[in-house]
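User: structure tokens for tRNA (uracil(54)-C(5))-methyltransferase, please.
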Amino acid sequence: MGALIRQFYPSIIASGLQSFCRKMITPEPLMTKIESSDIHNKRPLTQSASNARNKKPKLKKYKTKKVDPTSPRGVLEFEIDELLGKIGLDREQIRNDVSAILNDVPKVNGPIAKAYHRIVNNVKILQSTSNGDGMALIDNPVEIEKKQLALIPFGLVGDVVNINVYKTHPYHVETDLLDVIEESPSRKDELITCKYFGKCSGCQFQFLSYNEQLELKRNTITNAYKYFAPRLVAEKVVQKVGLTFGSPLELGYRTKLTPHFDVPRRRTLESKPPLGFGQKGKQKWRKETLDCGGHSSILDIEECPIGTAVVNMGMRNERQKFEINYKNYKRGATILLRENTTLLDNSCSILEQLKDDSSKDMDGNISFLEVEDIRTGAKLAKTCVTNTRQVVREYVDGYTFRFSAGEFFQNNNAILPLVTKYVRDNLQIPNSEPGAPNYLVDAYCGSGLFSICSSKGVGKVIGVEISADSVSFAETNAKNNGVENCHFIVGKAEKLFESIDMPCDRTSVILDPPRKGCDELFLKQLAEYYPARIVYISCNVHSQARDVEYFIKETERGSRYKIESLRGFDFFPQTHHVESVCVMSRV
Ligand SMILES: C[S@@+](CC[C@H](N)C(=O)[O-])C[C@H]1O[C@@H](n2cnc3c(N)ncnc32)[C@H](O)[C@@H]1O
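Assistant: Done. Predicted tokens:
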């Protein structure tokens, strides 16, 4: 890995490999910057202007854009290096002359852009990305001694496919999948449940068995540590990643969907614009569904099989309303669809107990589903909320959580009891003095999910969270659930260390930061505090791997920790996303 980085990012070496992953990288030019010329200047020409006129027109330049290495675009750079390493090529051998393409300079047989953007047949897919795309090598159409690295959506390792190359970057090209000529043994199209699959950008894995999906996600975690925690991997601090925990529901699990629509600027809408989810390129491989959802960048989608039943009822209602009132919109918007659960009181009618501002059908009736809680036998009503400020409720592990519909809350209720139990079990401090209480710190605590679900038998829990709104919900949630040992602080995670008064030997810490991961300052202070155990949950395993390596290798007491286990949870079946849980304990 070090050698690869050295080869392609020589400037990084000067500043040290260990700090590389924390820096922004500029993997390649991403945007075109067109330089203006004075060609349309009608004023009399001065000498200098006349000289300027005789100059050759300036070449168009790329404007480089900084990319977070742990973002999908940043991770792709590591994946490109990995594939090149396997087949023994270096970056120069796949480099595209983007400047020539941008300026469409004549090369070989005419302007170059046309030669680059073309159909290529019989392409064998060699590797997958963590985003669920296939990667393959194709010939460079202009510089025949070179190759190109193609990213192929919905391509599986072992497939042989026909593709359309439509966009060129310095070290890869973007393509659309046109046909699958030979199928990978993993490809099982009969499993596809959604007519938009293969066009919609939401799901990548519907054609894989669930076990294969879980295995790919385990591989994503393994690779993330290889790319972002190379020293821990080399020193075998990272052991084998455990099997990914599956979601009890593989479809109908998502408690929140956000369909959206666009309104072209300065135009009145003549007809209803598509309302749904983004289209992934211009894929053509699923012939039977080519026209489904239309051909705009947003697909018109009336049902989403990964959404819960009541969220789909809400989607139907809101689409019907949109059909009538779309002309009132001056710009595009996103519609929030969030499931809300009401614990029913058998002594009064269901409708009396439901919030009036839940999504209604065209007759003005609230759409709801009555269900039974399998664990307690309690009767529940599910409704769909569209107002971001409305307070919604969820039941997890016998606790009730209230939060604003627009604020963060986990989106797969079915998997939450598995996750909260796993977290709770792994927070336990072994061999603690009999009778002495243990303590818990919940950094990035949101509305208190992990604090409250892990509070039993613990002396005290301190949660810290940047959103004052979420902290106020965390406090009410603790109170409403009769939990008295939880205290919540508003502020950045590191604020916690100002008020922590629990003995570190008997304290466990849970970390659940946003996608960008933790700040170095926080990780340094965490190591200084020196808790007995740490459970780090992350929706971006790449920033998690970077943080874990920083914590163990760069902080003063980090080397006194080991990784006890590393496992994924599949919060989002049918998609490439994986939630990773890393448990660390003192050596
Ligand atoms: C992935 S969510 C986890 C929330 C909670 N653990 C849960 O499961 O519901 C991350 C949370 O971190 C909060 N957050 C973001 N940056 C933060 C920071 N620097 N310090 C503390 N909290 C932060 C966000 O507001 C969000 O609630």
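User: Anything notable?

Assistant: The longest helix spans residues 210-228.
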